[in-house]
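Lecture 7 notes. Example A: sequence first, then its structure tokens.
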Amino acid sequence: MNPDVLLRYLPSLISGFGVTIFCWSAGGVLGMMLGFAIALARRAPFPPLQWALRVFIEVFRGTPFLMQLFLLYSGGPYIGLKLSATAAGVLGLGLYSSAYFAEIFRAGFASVPRGQIEAATSVGMAPIDTMLRVALPAALIAAVPSIVNMLIVLSKETVVLSIITVPELMYQMQTMAAETFTAFDAIFAMAVFYWLLVEVVSRIGARVEARVTAFLA
């Protein structure tokens, strides 16, 4: 490894890492919001809506993220959707992850004991109160480990954004490797940055899980 090369490109790598964190966090928040909305909508007793949402989930889970990103960024202008590379990356991450978050939240709702719902109904709670005060807290607590795991997986999907010229960490790494012919140094630096991100998310997720588990107990 060449420390001089790493030091020379460190500002670019840090800048790319900042873009990576922005795209990942914005895409993750968007994905969770969409996924939660989809999970709630799928509980509605309206078969056509359930069928449409099921198709959405299967399409985004069953096709590669790279293909989805290309269609969104390159195909979007054909339907009047013109996005910058970064905006397309954030939206792509959000749509892609929303399908997985929807299933995570669905499983969370399914894990709520039926007896709790029946008990709330028997004491006269309205359906909306039963959802907000009984089903929703228990579902979110059950979903925390899977949410954290999905966020970790999503952080590593950001490397694909370099394909559409988003100036994130992978893009800066490729620039460094092309200009200095030090591919190993660039890849090693990128691995360290991603390891730090995953380690931080894992530790925060473990603390959140411990807190909500203590609350449940």
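Example B, a different protein, same format:
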Amino acid sequence: MTDNSSFRELFGEVPLMAILRGMGVERSLAVATTAWDLGITAVEVPVQTPTDVEALRVLAEAAAPRGLRVGAGTVVSLEHVRQARDAGAAFTVSPGFDAEIVRASHEAGMPSLPGVSTATEVQAAVKEGLTWLKAFPASQLGTGWFGAMRGPFPGVTFVATGGMDATNAPAYLDAGIRVVAVGSALEDPEQLPALAKLLG
């Protein structure tokens, strides 16, 4: 059995996570620093290229003095799990649910946040011992999906990911979503300050 309840501590009271996809090392560090300074403490770097892995390493090192941790995203292979561990990632995030990836990440000391979009996937993840799951793609699932899942799976906490930005994040948070993860919208420099306003 795996356990990813440590995401409760990792996210703390902050309802947002920044996903820095394909930004390169320098821009990733700049955007992450801005996010941290604004109070958005959780940052994920998808690891799809060697440059991404280097960006993850640099951000993990930069986050440490702040007492923060950085995660690796788009982890879809055992090699990705190894790269994430070696780069200093504190957790992994995947687009879908793969028990082998979840277990390997757990064994490497990194809680896993796998993606789900159906009751079948949620049930399989719960069976594996997981209580935090990434709902993906959240903008396509809609806010009503979360209410429907809450009935049969009251012990699951969802992170809404996919198509999220400062304009629709409030609706998902109002629907009871614990964390909203924002990715491609961060190409717009106005997004981070707008999202920071949601922190109250």
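Note on Example B: Residues 57 and 87 are 4 Å apart (CA to CA). The chain has one domain: 7-199.
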